[in-house]
Write a structure and sequence with these properties.
Belongs to the IspF family. In the N-terminal section; belongs to the IspD/TarI cytidylyltransferase family. IspD subfamily. The chain is of the alpha/beta class. The protein has helices at residues 38-47, 64-69, 87-98, 118-127, 173-183, 193-199, 219-232, 275-287, 293-296, 310-322, 345-356, 374-377; strands spanning 6-12, 32-33, 36-37, 54-59, 81-82, 105-110, 133-139, 145-147, 153-156, 163-165, 169-172, 204-208, 235-250, 253-256, 259-262, 265-267, 326-335, 363-368, 381-393. It has two domains: 6-232, Spore Coat Polysaccharide Biosynthesis Protein SpsA, Chain A, CATH 3.90.550.10; 235-393, 2-Layer Sandwich (60s Ribosomal Protein L30, Chain: A).
């Protein structure tokens, strides 16, 4: 069975006047929440969903430079189109632009809702197997009063029948295209796309919304958005340690910290036997609970014979990045009588920094001797110890 193609329209053509009260220089979709522009967060939420095929931003005619300044790049992200004078008109421009691609489904998302989760997006998509349209919604908990003049109460609504709509709202593309085209021929303005679908006679179902899927509308909403980021995506620090030892064998150089150092012997091992990078890799893996280097690169696997240990280190770093984390600092101690290490430390730091994509000032490399004691003192091999501090999203 052919997988349905799914496109997303991000409606970002508004001026955001209410959220800009108080003199904010940028429209709300270009203002930062925890250092990241709102529109960028919104787009990334859909880039993170594997079922999404294309994402089309609809932007204001005067915001082209602001959008370009975001520097977003992904092969699923289409060039933005210009919106119309109303949200309804902007959505229609987006639908028209998608028409040549003929997606099966389309999701329509407000740019000012940056916290749509992968699960929420998936729930909306799933409902479209049975219904013409779908939207996330939350039941109303407050008592709702009706007033004709904004002052005198004339009725109390049954809140059990009331729900607050969110986006993304999803539809079968051909149906919502037809509904929007028909709606554009009348003077009535609709509040959202689900209302247009209802007016056109389409069956629209609700899925459970998310309280954090807020729409940034007023200045105080930015404060709530900051709290959502710091609360739901707060980072925690984890620490791991690594230890490795390799004996010498006949040779003319050793690999330490990714640097080839001429010496009267080399280190014995299945890979390049870089004892420093092995300890460092284990420290990073330990910090994120991913076992040790042997689990990921078994010594019995011949593809790793003679392999550069930077491969192992990069893999560990990629695992941290994949968790949404970052490496805070690394500390390596090398214990040997020889070779001399100090002059090679800057080169080692540079290799490790490039491999992991971090700054050299986050990497400490130290060398010491064992005062002629033990196997290192007898110059039979080298020991390395390492520690790694990483930040990852806080778990349960």
């Amino acid at each position: 069975m052919r997988q349905k193609s799914i496109a997303v329209i991000i409606v970002a053509a508004g001026q955001g006047e209410r959220a800009s009260a108080g003199g904010a220089p940028d429209p709300k979709q270009y203002r930062n929440v925890a250092g990241v522009p709102v529109l960028q967060r919104t787009i990334q939420a859909f880039l993170d969903h594997p079922a999404i095929g294309q994402i089309l931003p609809v932007v204001h005619a005067g915001h082209a430079e602001r959008y370009a300044a975001l520097g977003l790049s992904d092969n699923r992200l289409l060039a933005p189109v210009l919106g119309g004078g109303t949200r309804q008109a902007s959505v229609l421009e987006g639908i028209k632009a998608l028409a040549p691609l003929r997606p099966d489904l389309v999701l329509i998302q407000d740019a000012a809702r940056p916290f749509a989760t992968t699960d929420l997006i998936g729930d909306v998509i799933a409902v479209l197997d049975q219904y013409d349209g779908a939207l996330p919604a939350l039941g109303v908990t407050d008592t709702i009063k009706r007033s004709l003049d904004g002052r005198l109460v004339v009725a109390t609504e049954d809140r059990n029948q009331l729900h607050a709509a969110q986006t993304p709202q999803g539809f079968r593309f051909g149906q919502i295209f037809s509904a929007h085209m028909r709606a554009s021929t009348i003077r009535r303005q609709f509040t959202d796309d689900a209302e247009i679908a209802e007016w056109a006679g389409l069956k629209v179902a609700m899925v459970m919304g998310d309280p954090n899927n807020i729409k940034i509308t007023h200045p105080q909403d930015f404060e709530r958005a900051e709290r959502i980021v710091s609360g739901d995506f707060a980072m925690e620090t984890r620490v791991g340690t690594g230890f490795d030892v390799h004996p010498f064998e006949a040779g003319d150089a050793v690999w330490l910290g990714g640097v080839r150092i001429p010496y009267r012997a080399k280190l014995k091992g299945h890979s390049d036997a870089d004892v420093a990078l092995h300890a460092l890799t284990d420290a990073i893996l330990g910090a994120i609970g991913e076992g040790d280097i042997g689990v990921h690169f078994p010594p019995a696997d011949m593809q790793w014979k003679g392999a550069a240990s930077t491969i192992f280190l990069k893999h560990a770093g990629d695992l941290v990045t994949g968790l949404g984390g970052r490496i805070v600092n690394l500390d390596v101690t090398i214990v040997c009588e020889g070779p001399r290490i100090a002059q090679h430390v800057p080169a080692m730091q540079a290799v490790i920094a490039e491999t992991l994509g971090i700054a050299t000032n986050r990497i400490a490399i130290k060398a010491t001797t064992s005062e002629k004691l033990g196997f290192t003192g007898r110059e039979e091999g080298i020991v390395a110890m390492a520690s790694a501090s990483v930040e990852v999203p806080r778990g349960d």
